[in-house]
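Internal tracking record. Fields below are filled automatically when a chain is submitted to the structure queue. Please do not edit lines marked as system-generated. If the sequence contains nonstandard residues, flag them in the REMARKS field before resubmitting.
Queue: standard
Priority: normal
Entity type: single polypeptide chain
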Amino acid sequence: MPNDGADLTLMPQQVFDQVMANAGCRLPLGDPELDEYDLALYYAQMITGNSPSNAIFPEYGPLTDGNPGIPTLLLPLDNATGVSTNVTLTWSASDETDCYQIRFGTTDDPPPLIPGCITETEWQTPSLQPNTTYYWRVISNDSCGHTTSSVQRSFTTGS
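SYSTEM-GENERATED OUTPUT FOLLOWS
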């Protein structure tokens, strides 16, 4: 950092205090504009809810907590009956999510995990048995290994 020629010899505690008071990628810290680094982090959705950038600059958008959002299950409706044996499970997209995993089956504690991770917000079931209750949930995943699960739903196929 440029200085005015003053003696910059500091004692260890002074160095610690100086670093703690001035560390960060924006100087001065009160500057109302995000620098290029913070903007890149913001637009890459890497800034988390406990980041000072969010606390200081809320005008740049909603806070994120660094975890994938909870998907909202859409169809079939919970406890639906008489459902076709050919079903497409659908849910709403969730923020900060790279892909979804599906738990689906006739057991509810929990339903078995279907292999793979998909980026779509729907999944076509295999042909189902008539007069059978099925349970399902969707798990949001991000590239850091964080997961968030939807509520679990059930439906019963018709004859």
